[in-house]
Amino acid sequence: MALGISSSSFSTHYMKNPLIFPKKTNNSDLNFMFSCSPAANNYSKLCKCTTTQQGGGGGGELFSVTSSNTSDVDYLGESTKGDLNLNMGINGQASLQGPIEEIARVEAVEAERLLRNLGIPDPLSTRYSPRGIFCSRTLNFRSISCIGYDMDYTLIHYNVMAWEGRAYDYCMENLKGMGYPVDGLAFDPDLVIRGLVIDKERGNLVKADRFGYVKRAMHGTQMLSTQAVSELYGRELVDLRKESRWEFLNTLFSVSEAVAYMQMVDRLDEGIMSPDLGPLDYKALYKAVGKALFRAHVEGRLKSEIMSKPELFVEPDPELPLALLDQKEAGKTLLLITNSDYHYTDKMMQHSFNRFLPNDMGWRDLFDMVIVSSRKPEFFQMSHPLYEVVTDEGLMRPCFKARQGGLYSGGSAQMVEKSLNIHGDEILYVGDHIYTDVSQSKVHLRWRTALICRELEEEYNALIHSRDQRTMLIELLNQKEVVGDLFNQLRLALQRRTTGRPAQTLAATHMEDKELTESIQRLLVVMQRLDAKIAPLLERDGEHFNRRWGYLSRAGLWDKSHLMRQIEKYADIYTSRVSNFLHYTPFMYFRSQEQTLAHDSYSFYHPVPESNQ
């Protein structure tokens, strides 16, 4: 957990303070000495104690750490592996007698005070921070033995305008060489956001809600009206299983391809494609754009340019290596599993990590195993030949068994589990790609998962900026609901009157015809004016994040986007960057929040009528 120290002085502070930065330990076991001296009455005595990974607590040791062999399952269904146990009584234990509710209340108040004094945010406050770690499924971080990391847009964050802009340039250059009209086009990163879906049959880009209903759509580079969206997609749902039609924008790497495709759709509609290209439809056009971008990556010019001047493309994060260092020194086995090749990986990691690590450490010192050219998602699905990288030039030789400390190419997740003797939910994998990193590692191996989504920070700030506008919009909608309910009741009363039946109530039955009709007329005018006010506000909702698509995680005012549904389904935790782990501890218990249901507000906040009790 961060100790209120600025990032510029963090490394120096770590090296000078042995209480925070213990000497490098043998990571094969977790026997280390630690000291603690919090400034609280209950913790005033300096305590020195030894922890061990053995299940027993013999030898007079104060604490023991629950091992895999002795672990159980707690009341939330999480493994107790890694939990700290007290082996003997403590001084002043009598003061802990009494109702635990009262004791816990006092201790919680004192803990909050100590956290404030140390400059450390408490776990609850971090939930309301753009750099919080958000929990979809409860995760006991202590029970995680191994953490695997993706590299691109996970450990290393690229400047989207720079990286994707150059990818776009190379893609357009290749398209031009293939005979496509690309003159006058420029990269526009605001045209798309992560989580949109390309409709390859219609040349559209759509935003769907959690159920798959399309809420917004764009043809080429032009947004479609609400009426047009309803006519096109009112009777069908986005189904990502139909890969021949739908393409989900899983990652920021999708931005350059989507921008290029939507711009080329405009050119196809303009009828200026060369006859030499043959018959073209939107699906064939998508294939051509994908081929041009693939060539840009395979030819290596893009990565060579980035490797020559990484400072132009990579956004440094001084806190990131220190977050991983905390995890490693807590006994976690750290893995790097990336689809990038060895030369590119080594160059990027050196640039992003080495200058921020203490004691002349290099990036390789952080990881117990490094796997490049992993070929995800197949890495999680099947076995591939394993090669060991044996020279700095990248020379490889066939290998049949991985070992800790090794550098490899290819292989499989099953091989990693076997070599480390760690399996399933003991492993947490952290990546930015919902399908390649998060979905497949969970579906095939039941690994725990964390998604990195940098845009969360911008969305959080946008939501704060638009708070007043959303509050006014919700107030207008509530007014419309109340007025509309009265309108509907009076309309029903009029309907019953025309058939000679009494209205719902005695008062409504005895209303004068004129009064009833005028009331309906007045309410109808009010609702029409409310609609005229609400419609543009709804249209602009989310414009502080993206003026075309609104918020990343929302589809409309109330509902979640299809992207958010994917995150909740496959990512146990999610956050904006890996360095956010520095603001927590390697022993954190991430607890998912209450999931509200449509009927919760009625059952929890409104009294139940006596007749229904």
Automatic annotation (TrEMBL):
TM stretches of this protein: none
CDD domains to which the protein is assigned, alphabetical: HAD_cN-II
Protein name per Swiss-Prot or TrEMBL: 5'-nucleotidase
Keywords noted in UniProt: Hydrolase, Magnesium, Metal-binding
Family stated for the protein in its record: Belongs to the 5'(3')-deoxyribonucleotidase family.
Lineage, top ranks: Eukaryota, Viridiplantae, Streptophyta, Embryophyta, Tracheophyta
Gene3D superfamilies referenced in this protein's UniProt entry, alphabetically: HAD superfamily/HAD-like
A GO term for molecular function: metal ion binding
